[in-house]
Design brief:
Blueprint (H helix, E strand, L loop, with lengths): L4 E4 L18 E3 L7 E3 L8 H7 L5 E4 L5 H13 L6 E4 L3 H10 L9 H13 L17 H7 L7 H10 L5 H11 L2 H8 L1
Parallel strand pairs: 1-4, 4-5
Antiparallel strand pairs: 2-3
Helix pairs in contact: 2-3
């Protein structure tokens, strides 16, 4: 199983130094595991070059957060200089940014942007998917349980709860109990029995 690091780029200026990056909090939430945190002493965000040097054989996922030609060019140069085209994936939610990434360096695999994910789903459900070319190499969609953690449980409709339950990956007895409570909150069960 490949490990991946997700790197977010917050800011780019012509003189971009690591001291300009904000510091991590001492305690960070692990978004893909419920009630899990990581802690550490080093709160500095590593530079992409440092990540490549520290993890020379680890696949890396780079999410370009801003539409900036210079940023895309510099990231491409770093990936190429470390000869990591086969270990790096890059992209963005923005279709325009993904196109720029692919144009800048077509040897680095790209991610589906949001627009293309929606197109992919539409083509799949209409049966037209086999007739359309796909230039992207990787598809990343957050697990519904992660999306669920970001929403207030009380505001999720029954149809959304059912959809999440259907498509999420089971994770043992604790998951089933959590899902049951999500689908049938105690106030609904108590109210129904009255």
């Amino acid at each position: 199983m490949f490990r991946s690091l997700i790197l977010s780029v917050f800011k780019l200026t012509f003189s971009f130094f690591s001291k300009e990056l904000p510091l991590y909090h001492c305690k960070l939430e692990v978004t893909f595991q419920k009630e899990c945190h990581c802690e550490g002493e080093d709160k500095r965000i590593p530079l992409l070059q440092e990540v490549f040097e520290a993890f020379p054989h680890t696949p890396v996922n780079i999410d370009i957060k801003v539409n900036n030609d210079m940023l895309i060019k510099k990231v491409s140069e770093l990936v190429s200089s470390y000869k990591r085209e086969h270990l790096t994936v890059w992209g963005s939610v923005s279709h325009e940014v993904v196109e720029k990434c692919h144009k800048e360096n077509c040897h680095i695999p790209i991610l589906f942007c949001l627009r293309r994910v929606l197109l992919l789903l539409g083509l799949f459900y209409t049966g037209l998917l086999p007739f359309f070319p796909i230039t992207e190499d990787f598809l990343e969609i957050p697990m519904p349980s992660i999306i669920l953690k970001l929403k207030e449980v009380e505001k999720i409709s029954k149809s959304e709860r059912f959809t999440i339950w259907l498509i999420d990956v089971p994770q043992g007895e604790e998951y089933i109990q959590h899902t049951f409570l999500l689908l049938f909150p105690p106030q609904i069960i108590v109210g129904h029995n009255m």
